[in-house]
Amino acid sequence: MFHKILIANRGEIALRIIRSCRELGIKTVAVFSEADRHSLHVRFADEAVCIGPAAGKLSYLNIPQIISAAHLTGVEAIHPGYGFLAENAEFADICNSSGFTFIGPSPEMIQSMGDKARAKETMKKAGVPVVPGSEGIVTTVAEAYDVAKEIGYPVIIKAVAGGGGRGMRVVTKEAELETNYQMAQTEAANAFNNGDVYIEKFVEGPRHVEIQVFGDTFGNVVHYNERECSIQRRHQKLLEESPSPVVTDAIREKMGAASVKGASSVGYVGAGTIEFLLDANGQFYFMEMNTRIQVEHCVTEQVIGLDLIAQQLHVAAGGKISKKQRKPNGHAIECRINAEDVEKDFRPSPGMITSFHAPGGYGVRLDTHAYAGYSIPPYYDSLVGKLIAWGSDRTEAIDRMKSALDEFVIEGIKTTIPFHRALMRDEQFRAGQFDTKFLETFDWTKVKY
């Protein structure tokens, strides 16, 4: 096992990695921007190095500064967390060539599976069901018209290097195609420095269900069941749970087997997530693969009883994973607590937290880097923390989450807590009757609590 690692990230995920490292006796080095000098990940790491100004491109995306910090502190490995450089093949390659173990898949795997168009083709060859669409990058408007005509409207235009709903446009008719194609390209170029896009058939009213996979260097690949991620706004997840309320044992077995087959086909190593669209008939289609740990990994941990960060470290250090299938025990729900004003269309709400009281009790977990007196900076993702509730079944998990949310106090900024409190009381959600369009009609202000 490693003796010391550097964490090339910030906030709650950096703190989450530090906790697993402490349990394993691994020293940690935090990197931070000038805006994050007072973040808890800086305080609780064994060492901390400032790598630049507040702007992400000058700090957390600054590869030379991160590598310099790694050399300066004498680490053996680098954990990228999620976001920032976590799925950057060049960064993984530079880490490895600089003498540091990149805690994640190889640069080649990141390129193969992180590129959505290539990943779709790889999965298709492996026999995994895929959504009909273009054979690769769509380079011209004329080609976009041809693809859309062949597969039929509605279609969705997606950034090849995309994520978080950026560079993604739904087109319902031919007259809207050219404008949306150009807008998707522009958004993708601005967000990822890569304007390439591809086109797929838009599956209406689906569930967004993902499978957690893990591979090691001995050729073993396993899956750790599914997560339901359909509660999302503008393709940004707000709530996740495991298991999914609509996935049967039969669907779980088929989806899990397809995921293992797809990951095995590329010799996948490390933590990864294969995301599917699941229609009302139980048919699932590969959507994309994330070659990193996910924000929502916590719900999987709660129902299978395994520390996934520790598993990442174990695999990266050359360890072997158990192929024994882990069945879900109980039910877990995660609410993303964001610094956003839900009354003003989820507008970001950075600023100082004047009062902070964390909920607790049996089955309640809070992953956060926030505290009273901490200022949420305006430069990064608005995530304040992740509140997770476990129960023996879905109803108990919802009721426990409802109680935890009622106890959760964050003052000084606006958060998504009121939205989640209403969601836990909504009859349709409690019945498990929702899809990815649920929030288009859900009016949280009309729910009584």
Give the helix/strand layout.
Blueprint: E1 4-7, H1 11-24, E2 27-33, H2 40-44, E3 47-52, H3 63-73, E4 77-79, H4 89-97, E5 101-102, H5 107-114, H6 116-125, H7 141-151, E6 155-163, E7 166-171, H8 177-192, E8 197-201, E9 207-215, E10 221-228, E11 232-233, E12 236-237, E13 239-242, H9 249-265, E14 270-278, E15 284-290, H10 297-304, H11 308-316, E16 331-338, E17 340-341, E18 347-348, E19 351-352, E20 355-357, E21 364-368, E22 375-376, E23 383-391, H12 394-407, E24 409-411, H13 417-425, H14 427-430, H15 438-441
Parallel strand pairs: 1-2, 1-4, 2-3, 4-5
Antiparallel strand pairs: 6-7, 6-8, 9-10, 9-14, 11-12, 13-16, 14-15, 16-23, 17-18, 19-22, 20-24, 21-23
Helix pairs in contact: 4-5, 5-6, 12-13
